[in-house]
Amino acid sequence: MLTKSPINRRTFLKTGAGTGAGILFLPSGIVTGAVSPNDKLNVAVIGCGGRGGANLNGVKGENIVALCDVNAGNLAKAAQRFPKAKTHVDWRKCLEQKDIDAVVCSTTDHTHAFVNMWALNRDKHVYCEKPLANSVHEARTVREAYLKRKGKVATQMGTQIHASDNFRRVVELVRQGAIGALKDIRVWCSRIPQGGDYLPEVKPVPGHINWDLWIGPSPFHAYNPGYVGSCLKWNRFWDFGSGQIGDMGSHLMDLAFWAGDLRFPVSCETEGTPLNPATCPQWIKAKWVHPKNDWRPAVDLSWYDGGKKPGMPTKVFNRDSLFKGVLFTGDKGWLLADYGFRIMMLKGDMTHYDSPTAEQLIPKSIGHHQEWIRGCKTGQPTLCNFDYSGALIENNLLSLVAYRVGKKLEWDADNLKATNSPEADQYIRKTYRDGWVLSG
User: Distance between CA 365 and CA 356 in Å, rounded?
Assistant: First the structure.
């Protein structure tokens, strides 16, 4: 049972309101060979269109020394802005460039883990667009590679809403016991993916797209323009993405993970639309059980997508039009939140709760990209480093393993294994196309 202040001030500050989410308030200078904050990093940007363009804007104040994209149009536009940068089509060749300090990865989901691993193996700082990986095994592999280099490189997953003030206030309310002992977290997004089968071949492949490199480590599929462009085109396919739990789940489950101080579940079960060998489900309902830790009891965590939503505990929260959200339930009340708002409803008064002092508030972010740049230069830890985000993505993608197996998984996180389901192994770890190595 929580006391009036479930996390005391010392612990709250020490954890930065999130175990594994990066420690705040520590002295800088941890990174070996850290550069002066006034110096500029030499950055390679891999993936220059879509989110890649946004991430490029986020780091444009540094030295952009390399640009890489399988789409010649995207590459040419980026090169016009940064004419001194060397250009590459193959990210593996890009990472051979000797003057690179840091890498920004904004490729399609099925190559994220590969770029991350190759960059980490070369001791580069890495910023990776969400999700960090496209399988449970990939998420664990990237996380462990970072932990081997922790204190030497700075990492950040591109869940930029983590830098918002609203997320910080929600984390403080939950962690400091405003709704009492945390028991349950429900997360949802009403976006409905298209489903369907792999797309028919369309010839010829446009001259500005290197289709073989776009496919990368995934099983080969002939070119179709329906795969290319927005993530909503390609992330619905098993070979290229992980549906809504991989996409929007990276953002919304981030708030649940941070506020709930979650790490690795002990079980997971998922139901959804009938299994399709080509595409992710059009809706799922997933549930994980996360064990108790030193400040809260065990927590049930649930995810709903494709139009499915949890029931609301009070009429105040019964918002049929709410497209997405996170609902925290404690023994003394509820807290409903989205990217930009929060509403709390208590069962009684607030005499159980001590508002945090100004010193206990999580500091305002200098910006998600800027946090990573500062970490690269000074060693100050980042909040969405690959330790924290690796666990988050591993948790999320485990739901798709349970869905594909069709049974509740008893999860042994230490050994990355479902103890009651040997058939789950085929979905925990992906098989790659010949010539592609995850940890190169």
Answer: 18
